[in-house]
Design goal:
The complex is a heterodimer of chains A (317) and B (552). Chain A has 317 residues and is α/β, with parallel strands linked by helices. In chain A, 36% of the residues lie in helices and 29% in strands. Among the domains of chain A are: 3-78 and 150-217, Rossmann fold; 222-279, ACT domain (Alpha-Beta Plaits), CATH 3.30.70.260. Chain A has helices spanning 43-50, 72-76, 94-104, 110-119, 133-145, 163-178, 190-196, 214-219, 261-269, 283-300, 306-316, and strands spanning 3-14, 17-28, 32-36, 58-63, 79-82, 151-155, 182-186, 199-204, 207-213, 222-229, 242-248, 251-257, 273-279. In chain A, the strands form three sheets. Chain A has a six-stranded mixed β-sheet with strand order 5-6-7-3-8-9, sandwiched between helices. Chain A has a four-stranded antiparallel β-sheet with strand order 11-12-10-13, covered by helices on one side. The longest helix of chain A has 18 residues, at 283-300. Chain B is 73% helix and 0% strand. Chain B has helices at residues 14-20, 31-41, 43-67, 71-82, 85-90, 100-127, 129-133, 136-141, 149-175, 180-207, 211-234, 244-249, 261-282, 301-304, 309-345, 348-356, 361-393, 397-401, 407-440, 445-455, 458-474, 481-499, 503-506, 524-547. Chain B starts with 13 loop residues before the first helix and ends in a 5-residue tail after the last helix. The chains are: A alpha/beta (317), B mainly alpha (552).
């Protein structure tokens, strides 16, 4: 088996809200897969379908070779899950919750548990109610990371963690994946995704809009060029793949589709390049481009998007 | 915000800041805004409570005239009730039972006061500690809002709701051509009692970190108030003066009104509110009076050894409290049983009348008392089953169901606590009743007899568990309807004859099928039938949960 997760054409509706609208997602065994999308785009809903907590209306979902709904219990023994919003039992200590989840999953490595507690600087004797948001998140993280699960499903696992703990998290994930584990990481922290993920899928409004390695995705976006030439640049805007050209005498700034970068450079050399700086696309730009029409929609409208907020509620529940 | 605003950018609203600056604000700032907010949140809930209680009082008052059409009927009924300690213990002290007004008040009885108190308790708990526990109060308190405003606002809403309810009760009584003074006094006593328990809850929510425990504490005080007056009213009445319910009933509507006893209720309410405000000024938001202690760093085998560990751990305090509470109520009924026996000693002619119905008057008293206890235990059966829903809706089921724990085992682990707990509760009730009565009459054989009679109600409680589970499995957002089922069982159990309910309706309550022990003998068929019904409902409920979406 080469794919840990195979999802195609997944549809899930909550009343009028179409939370998932034909979503596709493929996660190869052994890879760390970034799962990106704006709030309410259906990330958590997808994860809950994969966990067999929600039943999809249509489409196909295969998790570790099994059916997430029908084989839920058998599959859950092989995976560990960290929810994005961890709620704990107010009168149970963090240590108790970690042990409870570990036992229900079929045992946990006590040595690794204690090691993780130390790394994440988590006090296991505090009661659920007295933990801060970040510390509640750590309880769920320690419980999941201390398991031997072959698949980790992490839904915004580091929300609320401080930068030091974020680094600890990244180190731990890197160590674990060297052992061949598969990770599905839903996250908004792009630096985290860049540091950890082999491939990413970007979803929007319940559909996959882009999927591939970061290099592949970068190829789909634009590089910013600032150039100074000996002769004034002529007819820059007619060059294929150029966007937002701003020519000011001998200086010019423009964005170019990364696929057209080479022809753009050839074009520029004809004017005698004096200096040139190029900025590769960041993941943020990648994000903004794919979320862009939603932003445009937001700016163009006078009230906050109703669709966005209701889809959010549906997905968050 | 105006709809035409295209951008959120702009200078800070200096006008608003300036308007706020001169007022320094008090601990009550923002109370009115919160009052409106509570009314908005509870607009349906409050109306349901108010209409429900009004209908209870109105239907009872209206039925009295049909039951006793002539003064001779009333006189006979008064004679019967005056000699019946069981009725007095269950309902109310006997004042002017030879009048329609007296009979109406007697028949609504203590149950009416309990319902008023519950309305106040749930209302206050929901808008104070429950919000605080969920972190919503923090959001509100970070705005321009005084420290005491949430408590003050919910008490203002309670006072308003009870005033409306009192007005409707007055109108209900007047519609039955009852005297004005008594009708007004009765309504004020009911409303004042409800408001007192709203104020009591305003104190208990300051003491504990959890709303559930705060309501449990207030509920225990309500139970004590009921038991004290039951024992007092059957005895010489002294103990009744230790009970707020006794104060309300001592106002004697339609029987030589004593308005001044209401001052006791008002005074107690004022003291409670003052105490609540003092406690608010010394405690942290989110905290109780007892600081949280650290817990064990690792889980015990009891917690993680089996799937039953967690549900038991989460509910052990509640099971213990309910068991002790029902045991103590059983003790008080058992001690009254002795008085019932003494009373009959003076009135052997009356005993003959009752004995024709099978069994002695004491046994009839115990049968009714056990029904009452079983109905109360129904509260545990439902709330324990609803734990499944609160765990699911609170997001705590999700990480568990994402482990190797299957849906059916998860549900059945909670069911085990609900089913076993129900049995424990009834055993405790029977034990308390049997031991006290057995010692009083020097016949410890009563213990086994009354425990058996109490345990006979357990299958009926299991049916309630089954009904709740079916709701959970098929209509998770309507699980609160289980409480409606319990209320219906209460009305059928306590008012079926009075309201002249049709037989098929009465038969819908599982409690009506339990063999009426110890008055009558044990019958196997209904017990088996109830257990089988419960089992079918539970299997259906689990099947429903297995096929629906979990976690929302």
């Amino acid at each position: 088996m080469t794919n840990a997760i195979e999802v195609s054409g997944l549809v899930k509706t909550f009343g009028q809200t179409r939370a998932l609208d034909g979503l596709d997602l493929t996660v190869a065994t052994g890879e760390v897969h970034g799962f990106l999308g704006p709030n309410g785009s259906g990330k958590s809903t997808t994860i809950r379908v994969l966990l067999g907590l929600l039943r999809a209306d249509s489409g196909r979902a295969v998790l570790l070779g099994g059916d997430p709904w029908g084989d839920a219990v058998a599959l859950h023994r092989r995976l560990a899950y960290v929810p994005g919003d961890v709620t704990l039992w107010p009168n149970l200590s963090g240590g108790e919750v970690i042990d409870l989840l570990g036992h229900l999953r079929g045992g946990l490595d006590r040595h690794r548990r204690d090691q993780l507690l130390e790394r994440f600087e988590l006090d296991p004797t505090k009661k659920g109610r007295t933990y801060s948001k970040g510390n509640r998140q750590k309880v769920a993280l320690v419980a999941a990371l201390a398991s031997d699960a072959e698949l980790l499903i992490l839904d915004e696992p580091t929300s609320g963690l401080d930068p030091l703990m974020e680094a600890v998290f990244q180190d731990t994930i890197k160590e674990l994946t060297q052992g061949g584990r598969t990770v599905l990481l839903s996250s908004h922290i792009l630096a985290e995704v860049e540091a950890l993920c082999d491939r990413v899928s970007i979803i929007r409004l319940g559909r996959t809009v882009e999927s591939g390695t970061l290099t592949e995705l970068r190829h789909l976006t634009r590089t910013s060029i600032a150039v100074e030439t000996e002769r004034p640049i002529d007819r820059l805007e007619r060059l294929a793949g150029v966007h937002d050209p701003q020519v000011d005498g001998l200086r010019a700034r423009f964005d170019v589709d990364t696929a057209q970068l080479e022809s753009a450079l050839e074009f520029l050399t004809a004017f005698g390049v004096r200096s040139l700086t190029s900025q590769p696309p960041t993941l943020e730009e990648l994000f903004l481009r794919h979320y862009g029409d939603e932003l445009a929609e937001l700016e163009g409208r006078t009230t906050v998007s109703r669709d966005g907020s209701s889809a959010d509620a549906g997905a968050a529940r | 915000m105006s709809a035409s605003e295209a951008t959120l950018a702009g200078p800070p609203a200096a006008g608003v800041a300036a308007a706020l600056a001169p007022a320094r604000g008090t601990t009550l700032t923002g109370t009115w805004a919160l009052v409106r907010f509570i009314l908005r949140r509870d607009r349906v809930r409050l109306v349901v409570w108010i209409i429900g209680i009004t209908l209870l009082v109105l239907s009872t008052a209206a039925s009295v005239e049909g039951l006793y059409p002539t003064q001779a009927d009333l006189d006979k009924a008064a004679q019967t009730a005056n000699d019946n300690a069981a009725l007095i213990a269950l309902n109310a002290p006997s004042y002017a039972l030879d009048t329609l007004g007296g009979q109406a008040v007697f028949n609504v009885g203590s149950f009416g006061y309990v319902v008023m108190a519950l309305m106040g308790m749930f209302l206050v708990g929901r808008h104070t500690r429950a919000d605080e526990e969920a972190g919503r109060t923090e959001l509100l308190r970070a705005t321009v809002l005084g420290r005491n405003a949430p408590v003050a606002a919910v008490l203002v809403v309670s006072a308003g709701a009870f005033a409306v309810l009192g007005g409707l009760i007055t109108l209900s009584m007047l519609s039955q051509d009852l005297p004005t003074a008594g009708s007004v006094l009765y309504s004020v006593a009911m409303a004042a009692f409800g408001l007192l328990f709203a104020s009591v809850t305003a104190v208990t929510v300051q003491l504990t970190e959890h709303n559930r425990a705060a309501l449990g504490f207030a509920g225990a005080l309500l139970g004590a108030s009921y038991v004290l007056r039951a024992v007092g009213d059957v005895g010489d009445g002294t103990l009744s003066w230790a009970s707020p319910m006794g104060w309300a009933q001592a106002a004697r509507p339609y029987a030589g009104e004593r308005w001044w006893t209401l001052l006791l209720l008002a005074g107690a309410a004022i003291v409670c509110v003052a105490v609540a405000f003092v406690l608010l000024s010394v405690r942290d938001l989110g905290g109780g009076l007892v600081p949280p202690r650290p817990g064990p760093p690792v889980a015990s085998t009891a917690l993680v050894g089996s799937r039953f560990g967690l549900p038991f751990r989460l509910q052990r305090a509640s099971v213990a409290a309910w068991t002790i509470g029902l045991g103590l109520t059983g003790v008080s009924y058992g001690s009254v049983g002795q008085d019932v026996r003494d009373l009959i000693g003076n009135n052997s002619a009356f005993e003959d009348v009752i004995a024709q119905g099978g069994g002695s008057l004491t046994d009839a008293f115990f049968t009714t008392s056990l029904l009452m206890l079983a109905l109360i235990a129904g509260g545990f059966a439902i709330s324990s089953t609803l734990r499944l829903r609160s765990e699911e809706a609170g997001g705590r089921a999700e990480p568990l169901l994402a482990t190797g724990l299957g849906r059916s085992p998860w549900v059945t682990s909670y069911l085990a606590v609900a089913l076993g707990g129900s049995a424990a509760l009834m055993t405790a009730a029977g034990l308390g009743m049997g031991l006290t009565y057995g010692v009083a009459v020097s016949d410890l054989g009563q213990v086994g007899r009354l425990v058996g009679a109490a345990v006979a109600f357990v299958p009926a409680l299991w049916v309630l568990v089954g009904i709740t589970l079916v709701l959970f499995g098929f209509a998770p957002r309507a699980t609160a309807a289980a409480w409606g089922v319990l209320v219906a069982c209460f009305v059928i159990g306590l008012f079926a004859e009075l309201l002249d309910l049709p037989g098929w309706l009465v038969d819908l309550s599982p409690f009506q099928h339990v063999p009426a022990m110890p008055s009558q003998g044990f019958a196997l068929t209904p017990v088996v039938a109830l257990t089988a019904t419960a089992a079918v409902l539970m299997v259906a409920g689990v099947a429903g949960f297995r096929r629906r979406d979990a976690g929302y």
